[in-house]
Amino acid sequence: MSRRYLEIASTPSVTAAQAHYGSAAQWTRLGERRRADEGPRQDSLGEVEREFIAERDGFYLASVSETGWPYVQFRGGPPGFLRPVGDATLGFADFRGNRQYITTGNVTANDRVSLFLMDYAHRRRLKIFGRMRIVDPDSDPALGPLLAVPDYPGRIERFVLITVEAFDWNCPQHITPRFSEAELQAVLAPVRDEMEVLRRENERLRRALQSRDQSDDEHGASSA
């Protein structure tokens, strides 16, 4: 777990739970190593994170209501619809949906959000803590070219910007591999090619057998 992510996640109640279940020493040592680390605090997106985000066609977005209840929704679109617009900022075009506006309402009172970006096929998961704000398209026309999704059949109602506070790559141990249609197409392409070769070979052999049978029939008739 990265230093900044650990700082945010390690609340007193979390620390108490770690002590209760016997992992406090482990996380204390990790925290000490992270605090001694002079490297980046993991609140700016690197090239690996940017490439990973650009390949995703969806993510899970969590917010918290004024009454303390968490709300999680799935946001989907063409690969890359969620995109970096700065070293520590992500943005996406918010298309009209069921018009509940639960996340939209939640972040007006508490802008803290959490994102889970999943790559099920390769069992990779990127977690992000951030602060989210809603931007009216008319108030910032410059965001249109940055976040628009050409040829996508959806009506843009607003733009969303998320300032990244921290991110962390998660353990793949319990991620069940799943594959999208596009990923399956790539995996199955060699199998389809081999099946096509076999189909053609089968057709060739069938024609050859028919030709031989026809020749035998003609030879038999001629002998008679």
Going by CATH, the homologous superfamily of the largest domain would be: Electron Transport, Fmn-binding Protein, Chain A
**CATH topology type of the largest domain:** Pnp Oxidase, Chain A
Task: Indicate how many domains the architecture comprises.
Answer: 3
Count of individual helical segments: 7
CATH class of the largest domain: Mainly Beta
- The total count of strands amounts to 7
- Poorly predicted runs are none
Mean pLDDT over the residues? 87
Largest sheet, strands/sense/barrel: 7 strands, antiparallel
CATH architecture of the largest domain: Roll
Radius of gyration: 28 Å
Distance between the termini: 88 Å
Percent range for β-strand residues: 25-35%
Which structural class do you get from the secondary structure elements?
alpha+beta
Using the alpha-carbon principal axes, give the shape.
Answer: elongated
- Spatial order of strands in the largest sheet: 2-1-5-6-7-4-3
Characterise this structure.
Helix content is 42%, strand content 26%. The protein is of the alpha+beta class and 224 residues long. The chain folds into three domains: 1-40, no CATH class; 43-169, Electron Transport, Fmn-binding Protein, Chain A (Pnp Oxidase, Chain A); 179-224. Strands 2-1-5-6-7-4-3 form a seven-stranded antiparallel beta sheet. Strand 5 and strand 6 form a beta hairpin. The protein starts with a helix and ends with a helix.
